[in-house]
What we know:
The protein has 374 residues and is α+β, with helices and mostly antiparallel strands.
Amino acid sequence: MAQAATKRTGIFERILWIATLAMSFILLIAIISPLFNPSNLWIPSFFGLAYPYIALLTLIMAGIMLLFSFKKAMFPVLVFICGIGPCKHTLKVTPTSNAFSKNETDITLLSQNVHLMGIYDTTGIITIDSLLDVIQSESPDVACFQEFYLREKYTGKNCEPFMQAGQFNNYATSLYADSTTDTYLSLITFTKFPLLNQGVVRTPDNTARNIFALWCDLKVNDDTVRVYNVHLQSIGFTENEESLFDENGDDNGEIQVKSKSTARKLKRAFVARSKQVEILAAHIDSCNYPVFLAGDFNDTPVSYSYRKLRGELKDAFLESGSRGMGKTYNGPFPSYRIDYIFYPDGFESAEFKVFGRHYSDHFPISGRFRRNQK
């Protein structure tokens, strides 16, 4: 009996060890996935997207392996530790206490994907008034909105309520998706600062739908700074496909169909974003002014998009956010941090906030910045 039990334990340990090695290898792929341009190799991007779950499962398996062998349990732990960077970008364990009192030289920047300002929302949760409440309560110096709806039919005089609510002096906008009858999407940047120049960043085919960034040169105190308002390629899930991530499961046939459709859309989005970030990164590199970058990346901190666009910039959430994952997407998937504010050297970040207000499928985010003392 004892020998049989020992044999069963040995078999279980071997199976567990093989599974732990496999998960460690998958975790390694997830860790290095931001190094691969999805245009050239897209498969690692799937592992990067699932990084939090892969890392958690690997550590759980390491804990179970510890019951049998300390040395074997340390292997996945070492893989995790060697790739600690993605974990730090994803999960903030301790809040940062570098807040400084607000003064007139600070720059407060707000960003949100406003999801067409609720024109197709049947719940009544997303309204223009609710969006204006955020502006009035935060009083940002710069507000970057994505998926801003410009049709007068639905929004009155469009920008005037926002200009008044935020006491803005200027705004820049650019249509980046349109339909002759229904949808006019715009990137729009409101500001209290003098607007010196503006432009767009687009993919080479030169159509309105391929504008994915709006830039503005602003006169801020004695500086000229450039603010990029960004909306990278979305995945484009339908409600039917999003139900794949709901707790109420479908039957196996439906899951298989939805999974294939979801995988195809994820692949297309990974590749499309990689092309956009290559163009945008080059545009940023050519700028001679300090650069602030804000918007909806539709990608997680463990992604090629994040690594490429962050470059030498600093992530306001990591520098001055509260603890946690900083979730910005108010939906079933990817329920991570996919909206960002990056800022340049020469500035410091006092605070970064994610507002848990259900005014859109994205939560508003804001950061407050100041020139370093010379």
